[in-house]
Amino acid sequence: MVILCVTMLPFSISAAQADGVTPDGIKWPKNQALPTFNQPKHLDVVNVSNAPGDVKLLMTTLQGIVNRERPRIYLIQNKVDPWYNEMTIPYKLHDNSMDVFDLYKNEVKGIIIYDPKTPDSINVATTLAGLKNAVVVSPELAGKLTAAPYKLKVIEDFRGKFKNKIDAYTWQYEHLWNQTTHRMLIGLSPDTSISLPPGLPESFMTIAEEKRQIRDASNRGTYEYDLSSYLGNEAIYVRFDDSFTQDGWGPAVHAITVKADGKVIAQFDAGTPEEELYLYDRQNSKYLPGADHRFADNGSYFMYEFKPSAGTKLLTISVEMWNQYKVSVGNIRPLSSEQKEPYGYLRDYAVANKAMVFWLSTDVPDQRALLEKILSDLEPGTPYLGWFSNDFEGEAASVDLLSRHSVFVLAADWFHNMTVFSGTKVEAAPKIKPNPLKLENKIYVTFTFGEGDNLQYDLNHMREILWEDPARGKVPINWTSSPLLYDAAPMVLNYYRKTATENDLLIAGPSGAGYFNPHPWPEETLPDFLRDNYRYLKQTGMTIPMVINRDITKDIPISSSEAAAYEHNYKVPGILLVGDQFGIEIMNGTLPVSMMPGIGTAQDGINILAEAKKGWDGNSPLFLSVGVNAWGMRPHDIQAIAESLGDQYKIVNADQYFTLIREAYGLSKKE
Question: Could you tell me which residue ranges the GxGYxYP putative glycoside hydrolase third N-terminal domain spans (predicted)?
Fold first, then answer.
């Protein structure tokens, strides 16, 4: 079945420019952070959200080749895609991905076969695909595509070529790096976990759950449970989840002992080789170097597998753990997130732009050394799109390293169809200017949802979960977003600007036009980088930045020179600086910096504001900026906090907040 539709999508109709226009038609002037694609006139659309990973890989690499000249393929990759539902240009909706492949097979020069035994060969193959106008395929798909009716040429077969990860990326650096663009880098995991059903697996029952929001390990103890009722199958599975998924203080497990009829059959501490024998699914749990426990926060979990001998009558488990745990047990083998498959998403953008794709860790010496080689070849202000291995700890170390090389980050590894969104046009934003406020002796509070530097957050979670909350617009809220949506996805930027209420203010996510740390960024390149990208803040209206300034993982104050760089080159009225306590500092006598501690629940917000009020004498205004956990909280949580406050409090947006601060401290007005 083919569905024909005709509607309207905002298009980019910029004139061809002599500077920065590739032979394929992509426009990328020197002063532009990201490229602009040609306007889409017609799209072939297919839903691949439930397709096998190798099909997603095939189709996104095809999409990159085809959309380089003009966006013509749109792939539905998420279960929910509100952007597709609103797309109103001529398109055909196809039932089968191979129908779309058939339409464009003549634009494909051949195939590149990845090695399933070396997953990182997927990334090397993606890089080569961009250079050779080829698609990346599994060995199984290779058999189909080299036979009739396709008879595609094998350009490269990576099976058996690389010994390991570093061998693959070293070969790529030595043979492909000089052919790829040096104006962007792409960091993607070569594979991802297979899709798992939501909730607990079949046969699992929760046997213990901490009902209190404990964050200080005050409930640390050894807990014993009888698992005998789950005997009868080959194995028993014990899973640990976060009982309060919104605040990030999930289960911490130090040691486990399992006994069958009184005999120890498993005994280990977290993070040891002995634990690995029983760790069936680590999912997104963490064991940090130097720690004594494994933990899983928010929606993460971890699961162990134990196999008592047949005929066991009594099975018990002893667990030393603390914080917000939920323990569940089952006896039917569940799917595991450790089963991996390739995935698509940002690969279309990498292929179209002929960018190099890799997944190197700052924690592994030979990988870090190779990454530093790559970074040393770049001009200051180069974007790194994608993400990092090891999640949070990888994030902190990697952002620090990239910042030291004057490279900024755009989290985008789960951003889909960027080759299509980059061809849309920025539309004029409605002008919303709240009435000016009279300065009073009140407690002024401004709330800021973080994560907006994350392009895929802007595309997905912010739109689907937060923006759709009925409480949005009831209370002033600052929404961090990325000023670089101006290049990457004008249609997304348009949506937020058109649907914002007078209580919604878009501000720049950390730490401006891109995610970076000012502290490690070289002092000699920071002013020029900010000056070059100021236009993105001005053109998007995101003139106030939320800033993360870290020494690796430790939040630190902003320096005088860093503050001056922001004030003179970004022309900011003030800075919201992530920290662990409230406070206003006037940097260099002219720039207000508001320290912004974070909250994970509405009760956290109520508590932190009540505590701040205790030190207020009521004789002058008090200014408090609060960071909001965007993954666990919603606008209705901010509304609940607001409704709990007395008349002494006034909630304002960041524009109003810094206008009032500047008046209170006798600083000049900023337009």
Answer: 344-422
